[in-house]
Dehydrogenase/reductase 2 (Equus asinus), 281 residues
Amino acid sequence: VTAMLRSVSWTFRGLHCSSVPLSARVNSKRADRSCALAEKVAVITGSTKGIGFAIARRLAQDGAHVVVSSRKQQNVDRAVAVLQGEGLSVTGTVCHVGKAEDRERLVATALEHCGGVDFLVCVAGVNPLVGSTLGASEQVWNKILDVNVKAPALLLSKLLPHMENRKGSSVVLVSSMVAYVPVPKLGVYNTSKTALLGLCKSLAVELAPKGIRVNCLVPGIIKTDFIQRTTLHGLRPQLCSLLFRFGEPEECAGIVSFLCSSDASYISGENIVVASYSPKL
Ligand SMILES: NC(=O)c1ccc[n+]([C@@H]2O[C@H](COP(=O)([O-])OP(=O)(O)OC[C@H]3O[C@@H](n4cnc5c(N)ncnc54)[C@H](OP(=O)(O)O)[C@@H]3O)[C@@H](O)[C@H]2O)c1
């Protein structure tokens, strides 16, 4: 019986379902969710490390075929190798989201390898400045707004023709708690993350007639290289005052899978705080 179950389990893997053995899936409640995204395709920016990588792993565990991406080829290769090594259906390509030709390549890769796209998760974000908002150069403003705010919209505009003919398509943006509670010396970044809350609302209204939902993940302070770089500048006390504790990247992943799934079919335009506490009314 064990051998039989194992062979059925491998058949399921071939259909891009989770690598959880069939017996476990049948017997557990989580089993019902483990194929919640089966046959779906997810494109995720900034997904070779940190929050994006945790989301990529979770969507793939939940049955999706995932296209990971980031600026550096070696990071893409490593992320793809790790996730494929776990039996997950993952491919990848280089995509600096601020570069038009890279966005085109990401779309082409998803279409070539997966034949379409159901979900876009925009995780890539940068913060090159810790300092005064009014002291920021035009170059810094352009970089932060280009990567954090404009790139998700420009990438989605390229993917839209391929998403609107699929049933249950959805987009998840990634903002930050600093959108609600600004941290001193991160003014330009804070502003870009507040803009994403508005982008989520506008796109949700605009894309509703096409059946595409748009929501936004709003993380607190998550233990990644990004936050380590930021706390190097003496901001730890300000960041700590926002929250009860720092989070793990995996704590951001389940909610994104839910937002993509049909369980969230009536949820759009929502900004969801994942931060041990929410400052929202
Ligand atoms: N960590 C936190 O506490 C926290 C809190 C709230 C919001 N966020 C947001 O969450 C997102 C991810 O942050 P993280 O903490 O997971 O960072 P991270 O661990 O430093 O990972 C960043 C990922 O994005 C990629 N990346 C960076 N710039 C990119 C670009 N221009 N185009 C495409 N990919 C790019 C990186 O790979 P390459 O180097 O290969 O490009 C890497 O895969 C960001 O938008 C950040 O603002 C983070």
Summary: The domain at 34-274 is CATH 3.40.50.720 (Rossmann fold).
